[in-house]
Amino acid sequence: MAAIDIIDKKNKSIGKTELPDDIFGVPVNKGLLHEVVRNHFANKRQGCAATKTRGLVRGGGRKPYRQKGSGRARAGSNRSPLWKGGGTVFGPQPRDYSYRIPKKAKWLALSSALAAKLADGEVSVIDELSIAEPKTRALREMLASLGMERNVLLIIPEKNEALELASRNLQRVSVARVSELNVHSVLSHEKLLIAKDAVEKMKEAYSG
After folding, report:
1. Are 78 and 154 in contact (CB under 8 A)?
2. Which domain CATH number covers 155?
3. Do 76 and 89 fall into the same domain?
4. Which of 61, 141, 186, 207 has its Cα between 20 and 30 A from that of 151?
5. Are 171 and 111 in a shared domain?
6. How many CA atoms does the CB half-sphere of 197 hold within 13 Å?
7. pTM of the model
8. 59, 81, 96 — which closes off a domain?
9. Which tens digit of pLDDT belongs to each residue from 47-63?
10. Cα 133 to Cα 137: distance, rounded to the nearest angstrom
């Protein structure tokens, strides 16, 4: 297990804690990280793009001109794809872009992302991650004292409404509960600030 300092809200070390190797010590698998992040964005796609075929374009009810004698090619509708204002051929239609990745692969990718952050020195553990009231100023001042004003992910063990509300107005500052932690949220922030209680919850949820 890797030992890491526990800091307080004034950025002073008050002890150490052990981070389990099966979460923070696995080899970094870049290919798997890429695949899981790709899956994350694919599952978020709405897939609602749609174009009108010739059967959906308004108009075109009668034959534009007679079949023979005009010298032009035969035409049955002015909403043919060959005509201006006509339908689209093979255009996009509503579809589902989501696909499934095995649960074990997701766990391995999350551990790989956490291990990469720890190896880069971008993980900090704080003894208590909370504020008295849901005020952005209070959270900003706490993060400033820790040297983490922006681009930081706060990982908490369970719901903390005051903290979650206060983080909304801070640029690139997000709050994630252990149960909703994912690879994209870990990799899209420069630093991770983990509550001490959240480390224990991660051991219960992810280890073994």
Report:
1. no
2. 3.40.1370.10
3. yes
4. 207
5. yes
6. 9
7. 0.81
8. 96
9. 999 999 998 999 888 89
10. 10
